[in-house]
Amino acid sequence: MAYNWNWSIFLSDTPAGDATYLGWLFTGLQWTVTLSLSAWLIALSVGSLFGVLRTVPNRGLALLGTTYVEIFRNVPLLVQLFIWYFVLPELLPRELGDAFKQLNPLLQQFLAAMVCLGLFTGARVSEQVRSGINSLPRGQKNAALALGLTLPQAYRYVMLPMAFRIIIPPLTSEFLNIFKNSAVATTIGLIELSRQAQQLVDYTAQPYEAFIAVTVMYLLINVTVMFLMRRVEVNARVPGYIGGSR
Amino acid sequence: MISIRQVSKWYGSFQVLTECTTEIQKGEVIVVCGPSGSGKSTLIKCVNGLEPFQAGEIMLDGTSVGDAKTNLSKLRARVGMVFQHFELFPHMRIIDNLTLAQIRVLGRASEEARDKGLKLLERVGLKAHAEKFPGELSGGQQQRVAIARALCMDPIAMLFDEPTSALDPEMINEVLDVMVELASEGMTMMCVTHEMGFARKVAHRVIFMDQGRIVEDAAKDDFFGKPRSERAQLFLSKILQH
């Protein structure tokens, strides 16, 4: 097989003439990072909220939490994305749906992908938050309540600070996953990193270079995230407790 | 001060407490003992509402614990509780363990709370450890901190739920010493414990429980002299033979 390696392709101008092919990849990288980070914010807040709800001594609230988790983690991500992007705007009240459809198409794609990824990942985060809370000794909650703290205060000052420390490793995996999962946004047309790679192949017929470059970019993102989370883990260490001894 | 009347509790269809009745006066020290599974810990947790009960009534300084209208958090803030496994908050420094509820529940200024915390740490002999984390202290030290933490709230009574059961033998006395001192100062105390030496020394009354019932509720001397129930005699003969 004769394949003509041509790494200089990244520096040549695209047909549109407004950027180099490397420039395309960077635009894609920006979309991937922006999409993933904003979805992560949603996932973390929604996941924490529902994770807590699943542990409170109130059947109604716990059921609400369970319902959310079971719906969002049991439907394939791709199906969810199509529902958010294609189906939901039709089900909304007419004015709202029309307002959405009149947005800049790029913004439509971004919003749908952000909400979809955020809520999908949030369901997984909420399971981790729940297991973190449940892994605490039962006496911790009792001790907090016995001091006169209210239940919300017990969560805020006693249980959640430890629960979040315990679940840093699985949360890191989830944070990494969201960057990789963000590639599904390509199916509704968002020009994120993997989409740019496909475009590059279409335009230059240099698939190896394109996908190697994209692979390296995903790797760089994830190495950065791992490094960051490692710092968080070290800073959150509790002396004399799990992982606390140096 | 604490009055327990006809309290019964079920886990599903299993009855863990059966018509428990007793009274604890201000300044009294009561020791609750009995075989494991007899409901001692459950009963003491009912006193500050950590465990709900289905029948009967518990009055704490004139307030009903079981009443749905009672503000339980407020009531609990007035009663100190010490647990078998210390339950210090591991992510907070010792001093922060002591000030958390003072600031968040009693609304004390952080300076005032800190002063109070340090004073009580000094009293249990641990002032030098104020800036450490719980995981850096021994079990006995942690339990003394836990007692200091409860005392920071200026409680009207103290509940002890097997405070020495999780400790190494050589650390038991340092905790008991603090409890004896507290008792001698006139603190109202309800202690679930197997430390009969402690009971002999400071208790006014001893309550013996078996299978969820209060089998014996007697003045200390009567209890150790001639327990009326066979079950209590058997229990005492088993734990006092060494």
Automatic annotation (TrEMBL), chain A:
Q: Of which family is this protein a member?
A: Belongs to the binding-protein-dependent transport system permease family. HisMQ subfamily.
- PROSITE patterns, A to Z: ABC_TM1 (PS50928)
A family per Pfam: BPD_transp_1
Q: Where are its TM segments located?
A: 31-53, 60-86, 106-123, 144-168, 210-229
What GO MF terms are annotated?
A: transmembrane transporter activity
Q: Tell whether Membrane is among the UniProt keywords.
A: yes
Q: Which UniProt keywords apply?
A: Cell membrane, Membrane, Transmembrane, Transmembrane helix, Transport
List the lineage, top down: Bacteria, Pseudomonadati, Pseudomonadota, Betaproteobacteria, Rhodocyclales
CDD domains for this protein: TM_PBP2
**What name does the UniProt record give this protein?**
Glutamate/aspartate transport system permease protein
Q: Where in the cell is it found?
A: Cell inner membrane; Cell membrane
Q: How does it sit in the membrane?
A: Multi-pass membrane protein
Gene3D superfamilies the UniProt entry points to:
MetI-like
Q: Which GO terms describe its biological process?
A: amino acid transport
In this protein, which residues make up the domain named ABC transmembrane type-1?
29-229
Cellular component aspect of the GO annotation: ATP-binding cassette (ABC) transporter complex
The answer to keyword Phosphoprotein applying to this record is no
User: InterPro entries from the entry?
Assistant: AA_ABC_transptr_permease_3TM (IPR010065), ArtM/GltK/GlnP/TcyL/YhdX-like (IPR043429), MetI-like (IPR000515), MetI-like_sf (IPR035906)
UniProtKB/TrEMBL annotation, chain B:
Q: What is its main location?
A: membrane
One function term, GO molecular function aspect = ABC-type amino acid transporter activity
Tell me the compartments it is located in.
Answer: Cell membrane
Q: Which domain of life is it from?
A: Bacteria
Q: How does it sit in the membrane?
A: Peripheral membrane protein
PROSITE patterns recorded for this chain? ABC_TRANSPORTER_1, ABC_TRANSPORTER_2
State a GO cellular component annotated for this protein. Answer: plasma membrane
Give the keywords, sorted.
Answer: Amino-acid transport, ATP-binding, Cell membrane, Hydrolase, Membrane, Nucleotide-binding, Transport
Kindly give the Pfam families that the UniProt entry links to this protein: ABC_tran
| EC number from the UniProt entry | 3.6.3.-
Q: Gene3D superfamilies attached here?
A: P-loop containing nucleotide triphosphate hydrolases
Q: Mind telling me which InterPro entries this protein's record contains?
A: AAA+_ATPase (IPR003593), ABC_ATPase_HisP-typ (IPR030679), ABC_transporter-like_ATP-bd (IPR003439), ABC_transporter-like_CS (IPR017871), MetN_ABC_transporter-like (IPR050086), P-loop_NTPase (IPR027417)
Ranges for domain ABC transporter: 2-236
Q: Which family does it belong to?
A: Belongs to the ABC transporter superfamily.
Name of the protein this chain belongs to:
Glutamate/aspartate transport system ATP-binding protein
